Amino acid sequence: MLLRAILCSLCLSLSPLTMASLPDFTGIVEDSSPAVVKVVAEARAPASNSSDQMEQFEELDQLPEALKRFFQNRNPPAPRGGSGSGFIISADGYIVTNHHVVDGADRVIVRLSDRREYDAVVVGTDQRSDLALLRVDAKKLPYVKLGKSGDLKVGQWVLAIGSPFGLDYSVTAGIVSAKGRSLPTERGENYVPFIQTDVAINPGNSGGPLFNLDGEVVGVNSQIFTRSGGSIGLSFAIPSKVVRNIVEQLRENGAVVRGWLGVSIQNVDRTLAESFDLDRPRGALVAQVGEGSPAERAGIQSGDIIVEVDGESIEVSADLPHVIGLISPGSTVSMTLIREGDAETISVEIGALEADQTPRVVASVSEPGVLKALGMSVRDLDRESEAEGELRGGVVVMEVAINSAAYEAGVREGDVITRFGRKAISRLADMEVALDGIESGDSVSLRLIRQGAPLFIGIKVPEND
């Protein structure tokens, strides 16, 4: 009896605290749902080739008159389409949704919760961020405000309103699971630091708003991770910081221009961090600098590690395009990088994305001597290949022994080594000098050219027995 009384006392004392800690979403839903819309995109079905068939029949005089009239008078193909969600951001009819919701549409219809319906004009779309801006001819519409996605914290409550599976104005809630998620597109572009949540998102939610507890839009629901076709607890939203930037550009210009630096980058792993004398793995390692790029004009070099841009920390390489892409072309920013173990701060004038051109590097093999070290055999490049590939020398890997230090690090046959540690490699002799300076147990960085693309890897020199 005493134990039961104690447990009951604990339950009574915890219940008010537990109830108080759970958010009440009703106010947000009542205030914000009138500004959430359903977006219906219609596209004409492709025209059939029935007229071509008719002409063939006429030439052969095989088509009956009744069938001729049928083909001539048949109705145009019925429209096809899909639907998604969106939200109004101004009283004069501007609406945000996803690019993929309206992509290819011949007609876009917007439906409000009070059953009003409007034909929408597509002001502009941006495939890279998967955002689109629409406008309807209406005044005094209900609208929502964009909040500050940067203030979001992992574990914070958020909710979504949309039309999953066509079930209009459905509300789901959950928490922020992670921030700054990188989800490269099919073209390998990575300009959106997605907000990951466990809010239930399904087809039809695309383009709908993600709200914080203040009723502000902190994201646009865009993607789900699923193997079944429905929500399994992983959903991704475009942060409002990106949305604000893209919408302003679409509203003013109908198109989007992003900041561009002109470098190929990669992550820094533990071995590379040791080889570059970093206290821990961090930053974006510059593998290659584009000719004539803003990076080259600013003096950025291959092997530099960018760790900060205008006060924003670059922890992983994916952070760099997120930050640079939101900077207006022509702006000058402060950039901190690590070069040969020392921190340097430089100024960089950011270019426009359209100027980006990736250099093409080609390599072939000649017949000079062979150097064997760390389980690999290397030889010089011939001068003709250097000229064609715009290389300034290097040695090509001819063979890599299985289970060797080079193999375990990821060196493969055909790779061209252009840097070993802090020494540029132009010829086999440079490689010999660089090898003389390493000791067992050292971590050494290698810059390679592999199938035309630059790459840094770290090799751990085996300990002597």
TrEMBL record:
The reaction(s) this protein catalyses: Acts on substrates that are at least partially unfolded. The cleavage site P1 residue is normally between a pair of hydrophobic residues, such as Val-|-Val
Top EC group: hydrolase
Keyword Protease: yes
CDD domains, per the entry: cpPDZ1_DegP-like (cd10839)
Record's subcellular location: Periplasm
Segments forming domain PDZ: 246-341, 360-452
Keywords assigned by UniProt, alphabetized: Hydrolase, Periplasm, Protease, Repeat, Serine protease, Signal, Stress response
Lineage: superkingdom: Bacteria
Signal peptide residues on this chain, from the entry's feature table: 1-20
InterPro entries found in the cross-reference section: PDZ (IPR001478), PDZ_sf (IPR036034), Pept_S1C_Do (IPR011782), Peptidase_S1_PA (IPR009003), Peptidase_S1C (IPR001940)
Pfam families noted in UniProt: PDZ_2 (PF13180), Trypsin_2 (PF13365)
Listed NCBIfam families: degP_htrA_DO (TIGR02037)
The protein's name: Probable periplasmic serine endoprotease DegP-like
Organism lineage: Bacteria, Pseudomonadati, Pseudomonadota, Gammaproteobacteria, Cellvibrionales
